[in-house]
């Protein structure tokens, strides 16, 4: 069999986000984020868990950088906690908070690992929330100030920046479905928030570039292939509309400077006010796009759903890990569908004129068992193997994919699911914070060090620690 090889310079990394790993939620002058409040609301998080300690990365970052090195990775995507470095969300810098990221960046560089810094991965400073948060038209200005401060502090050592993580998920989960902070159910706010986020990306892009013209700036988007639930005409029409809402809404705004007209007409009652010049501002403000993709969804006609008349199967039908008719579902209840990553990458290639792309998140949660100190997570290896084959295929078919980041380095706080979902290449015992490299971590090391996709089996040989 032909072994598939990635080119020299291709980034093989892992990804995390501040609230999911850091802990130290109120240390060294950090102020609360919207997530610090949200996790305390009854019934919002599995078993009432919080990310207050998370996996204690704030204190264990040196051990974690050593793990990244042991995994053979040459890049790391992490996010900065805005309220850690700017407790009020604006103005005053908290030197102790900033120092953490400065030390983290230095240790990464010392280990030969390139930092990709996400500025905003959903943990908005509560003090900005109190001033209207993402709903406020001031948000892009606030974000630009923050981005500028970060560029001044880290721009001498960080070459690549991700302004925002998954703006669509942030807006829809935070303001429509209410399963993420700030837990609203307000369709009128949802699209306003999304529009403000895209304006913020543009403002942040400009701010970073004004400090460092050489900075490379992008943003991470959720891209989800949408299939009709049945072959019937109504479900096919539903899939077309849901695809517009879930994917094209953001892609077209960023890449073409226009929201899908059909969607705007359908949703006119809740459509945000778009000022003259906004769409030119939004358009094209990226040097690369980050693609986060995991599974596919199935759409169906749903006459009771306002505006769309369509919806998609819950992303978490019952959250059960299982094999059904030969198809694997992860412990999130997400279908393993390797072709989906190919389709996501080709969609971005086609709709956006083939920009440079990083897969900034891909991976799978499974109920990992520890036996004799080993985690033989074959299902995750199979997942990574099959998805990476498809990344390779997308490259062969012309998509300009330059790197791949596994979600995630360590089992961590999976938002509303607390610690019940394990996505890591490294197992974390949440009682002791002990880290153990899983078999998938050793498999990934083989990939990252040879740039060739190893067979989908538990690797032989010594442990990666
Ligand atoms: C999307 C998010 O960016 C990340 O925070 C989350 O943990 C993973 N996907 C898995 O759900």
Could you describe the 3D structure shown?
By secondary structure, this protein is an alpha/beta fold. The chain has a single domain (11-225, 246-296, 337-450), classed as Glycosidases (TIM Barrel, Alpha-Beta Barrel). The protein contains 15 helices and 15 strands. The model has no long low-confidence stretch (mean pLDDT 97). The chain binds 1-deoxynojirimycin. 1-deoxynojirimycin (NOJ) binds at residues 17, 20, 165-166, 292, 361, 407, 414.
SSE layout:
Blueprint: E1 11-15, H1 18-21, H2 34-38, H3 57-70, E2 75-79, H4 82-85, H5 95-110, E3 114-120, H6 126-129, H7 139-154, E4 160-165, H8 167-177, H9 187-211, E5 216-222, E6 226-228, H10 233-256, H11 261-266, H12 278-282, E7 288-292, E8 297-301, E9 310-312, E10 322-324, E11 327-329, H13 339-352, E12 357-362, H14 378-396, E13 401-407, E14 426-429, E15 434-437, H15 439-450
Parallel strand pairs: 1-2, 1-13, 2-3, 3-4, 4-5, 5-7, 6-8, 7-12, 12-13
Antiparallel strand pairs: 8-9, 10-11, 14-15
The chain binds 1-deoxynojirimycin.
> What fraction of the residues are assigned to beta strands by DSSP?
15-25%
- Per CATH, the superfamily is Glycosidases
Output the CATH class name: Alpha Beta
Helix and strand composition category? alpha/beta
Q: Helix segment count?
A: 15
- Sheet with the most strands, sense and barrel status: 8 strands, parallel, barrel
Name of the CATH architecture: Alpha-Beta Barrel
What is the percent of helical residues? 25-40%
End-to-end gap: 30 Å
Shape: globular
């Amino acid at each position: 069999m032909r072994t598939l090889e990635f080119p020299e310079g291709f980034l093989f990394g892992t990804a995390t986000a501040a609230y999911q790993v850091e802990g130290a939620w109120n240390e060294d002058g950090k102020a609360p984020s919207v997530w610090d409040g949200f996790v305390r609301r009854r019934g919002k998080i599995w078993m009432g868990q919080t990310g207050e300690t998370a996996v204690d990365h704030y204190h264990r970052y040196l051990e974690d950088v050593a793990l990244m090195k042991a995994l053979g990775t040459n890049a790391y995507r992490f996010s900065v906690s805005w309220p850690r470095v700017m407790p009020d969300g604006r103005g005053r810098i908290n030197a102790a908070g900033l120092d953490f990221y400065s030390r983290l960046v230095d240790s990464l560089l010392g280990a030969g690992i390139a930092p990709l810094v996400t500025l905003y991965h959903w943990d908005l400073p509560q003090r900005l929330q109190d001033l209207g948060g993402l709903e406020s038209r001031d948000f892009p200005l606030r974000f630009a100030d923050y981005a500028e401060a970060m560029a001044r502090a880290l721009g001498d050592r960080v070459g690549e920046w991700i302004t925002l993580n998954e703006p669509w998920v942030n807006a829809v989960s935070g303001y429509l479905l209410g399963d993420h902070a700030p837990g609203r159910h307000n369709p009128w706010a949802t699209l306003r928030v999304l529009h403000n986020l895209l304006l913020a990306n543009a403002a942040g892009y400009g701010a970073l570039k004004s400090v460092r013209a050489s900075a490379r700036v992008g943003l991470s988007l959720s891209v989800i292939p949408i299939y009709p639930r049945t072959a019937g005409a109504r479900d096919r029409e539903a899939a077309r509309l849901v695809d517009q809402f879930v994917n094209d809404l953001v892609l077209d705004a960023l890449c073409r400077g226009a929201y899908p007209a059909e969607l705007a007409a359908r949703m006119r009652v809740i459509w945000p006010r778009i000022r003259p010049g906004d769409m030119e501002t939004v358009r094209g403000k990226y040097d690369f796009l980050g693609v986060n993709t995991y599974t596919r969804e199935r759409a169906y006609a749903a006459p009771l759903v306002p505006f769309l008349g369509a919806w998609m199967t819950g992303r978490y039908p019952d959250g059960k890990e299982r094999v059904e008719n030969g198809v694997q579902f992860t412990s999130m209840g997400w279908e393993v569908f390797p072709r989906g990553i190919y389709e996501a990458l080709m969609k971005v290639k086609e709709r956006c004129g083939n920009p440079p792309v990083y897969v900034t998140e891909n991976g799978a949660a499974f109920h990992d068992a520890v036996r004799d100190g080993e985690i033989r997570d074959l299902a995750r290896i199979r997942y990574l193997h099959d998805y990476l084959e498809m990344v390779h295929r997308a490259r062969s078919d012309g998509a300009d994919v330059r790197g791949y980041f596994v979600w995630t380095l360590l089992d961590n706080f999976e938002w509303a699911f607390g610690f019940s979902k394990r996505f890591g290449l490294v197992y974390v015992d949440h009682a002791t914070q002990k880290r153990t490299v899983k078999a998938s971590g050793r498999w990934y090391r083989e990939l990252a060090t040879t740039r060739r996709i190893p067979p989908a089996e538990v690797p032989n040989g010594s442990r990666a620690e």
